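Hi F.,

I've been meaning to write this up properly since the lab meeting, where we talked about keeping a consistent format for the predictions we share between groups. The idea is simple: the sequence comes first, exactly as it goes in, then the structure tokens exactly as they come out, then a line or two of notes. No screenshots and no reformatting. I'm using this chain as the first example so we have something concrete to point to.
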Amino acid sequence: MPNIRPSAYLRNHYNDVSDFCHSKMEPIFITKNGYGDLAVLSIEAYEKFCGRYELVHLLDEALEDEKRGAYSDFDAFMVEFRKEWE
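Output, unedited:
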């Protein structure tokens, strides 16, 4: 269940918001005038989210390459890889 709070709660209970976000690794959604305005989360949770997003993006690219046939077999890849990194 999402944790939703008004903007005044963030202003008046910052430490509680911070403790919740760090301990639960979940966001708190902040409303302004009764409407969704912000999502507050810890830096660790944000970095984890960004890492997952990047991984999904890379996997999508790989699937598109596979559909187009734009890939090489593992042995050919390793030959190219070693040329660049040795």
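Notes:
The helical segments are 7-12, 14-24, 43-68, 74-85.
The mean pLDDT is 93.

If this format works for you, I'll send the rest the same way.

G.
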